[in-house]
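for the recovery benchmark. tokens below, seq after
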């Protein structure tokens, strides 16, 4: 997954790449007669329309590299041929990635931001080169 709105999901009969870029979001908006954030809210609340689910998945597949014809075949097989609830969470994940960007994997393992020094576990006074002080604070 990456911040370019692409996401890979185990869906249907395998792992598929989905991406809702600006153009695909416009197609979803046109097909569902609602903006992407309205559709996202409808899917999240369970008050979605059938087209909210199928169009998000269809255009997500197209944005992910499938031809429109192949995407339509997959939607007919794995969305329209199944109960709507089976694909609601997938549609939410795809549209959420399109609207907000998909979370990056292994963020903790990424290198730190440029210009930022890494934290040291060495004491700043551990090896200063001068003799340790034996005077007490009150002397």
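predicted aa per position
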């Amino acid at each position: 997954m990456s911040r370019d709105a692409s996401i890979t999901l185990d869906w249907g009969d395998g792992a598929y790449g989905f991406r809702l870029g600006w153009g695909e979001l416009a197609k979803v908006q046109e097909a569902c007669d609602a903006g992407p954030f309205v559709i996202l809210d409808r899917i999240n609340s369970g008050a979605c329309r059938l087209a909210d689910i199928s169009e998000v998945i269809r255009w997500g597949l197209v944005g992910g590299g499938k031809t429109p014809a192949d995407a339509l075949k997959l939607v007919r097989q794995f969305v329209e041929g199944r109960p709507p609830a089976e694909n609601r969470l997938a549609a939410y994940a795809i549209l959420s990635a399109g609207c907000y960007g998909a979370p990056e994997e292994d963020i903790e393992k990424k290198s730190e931001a440029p210009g930022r020094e890494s934290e040291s576990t060495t004491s700043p006074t551990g090896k200063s080169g001068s003799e340790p002080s034996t005077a007490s604070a009150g002397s």
